[in-house]
Amino acid sequence: MGTETNIDIEDIKKKVAKLLSLSESDNEHEANLAMLQANKLLAKYNLEMSDISLEEPDLIEDSLFKSSKKWERRIAAVIAELNFCSTMLVTYSTGSVQIVFVGTKDNVEVTKIMFKKIRSHFLQKSKYYHPRLRDSYLMGVSISIIGTVTEVLSKRKQPDNTEEKGLLVIQNRSNEYVEQLTKGRMRRSRQSTVIKEAYLKGQRDGLQAPIFDEIKR
To answer: What average pLDDT does the structure give for the chain?
Structure first.
């Protein structure tokens, strides 16, 4: 008895932070137990989630490939934002651009997988078109994907849970990181000709992108 008053509240906060990390485990039983214990400690010591200092994960840069296509860069940017990452473009004298994703390791990996899946799917579909129509078709695809993802992102403006808020903080860090690195390096892109019929077909197909069933849940 009497030991309660000697407890260091900072130690309690560290313990809660550790439990919250464990609550993200793939083992459902372990995750639920950790969250339950964390909530008990928060209630017992009259703490709130805002009192807990969680360790911020490191940001990484991961380049994808060189691309001269505007539609690829547009899709990469919006898919990155969907996964709490940012994109950085490194321009070469040849006109090609290296797409670089910036974010936490896990988020960057998900972004890369999702982007590659979409890119591969629509490049395959574009092969059924005459070469001069392909860029217009793919630009149409990119517009629909941007529109659908933007709709999903709009629902994040006022997230209801702490986890979502934490991910938005990470995304803000990624955006600031990219802004610092690219300050003063932006340049205007060249105009491209769009063929209406192929563009509209791309828009329709873009609404059926293979990721949309997952992100709309």
So the answer is: 75
Length of the chain equals: 217
Q: Per the structure block, which two tokens stand in for 101?
A: 């994703």
Whether the per-residue pLDDT at 15 is higher than 60: the answer is yes
Alpha carbon distance 105, 83 (integer Å): 11
CA distance 216 to 152: 7
Exposed, middle or buried: residue 138 (CB in 10 Å: 0-12, 13-18, 19+)? buried
In the block, which residue shows the tokens 């009497």?
Answer: 2
Q: Hey, what's the torsion of the CAs at 177, 182, 188, 189, to 10 degrees?
A: -70
Domain ranges of the chain: 4-51, 61-215
Residue 118 has pLDDT above 50, yes or no: yes
User: H or E segment at 76?
Assistant: helix 70-82
Kindly report each contact of residues 105-114 with a partner whose C-beta sits within 8 Å and lies 24 or more positions away, as own/partner. 105/57, 105/58, 105/60, 107/83, 107/167, 107/170, 108/60, 108/62, 108/83, 110/83, 111/79, 111/80, 111/82, 111/83, 111/85, 112/62, 112/64, 114/79, 114/82, 114/83, 114/211
Taking the complete model, does pTM exceed 0.85, yes or no? no
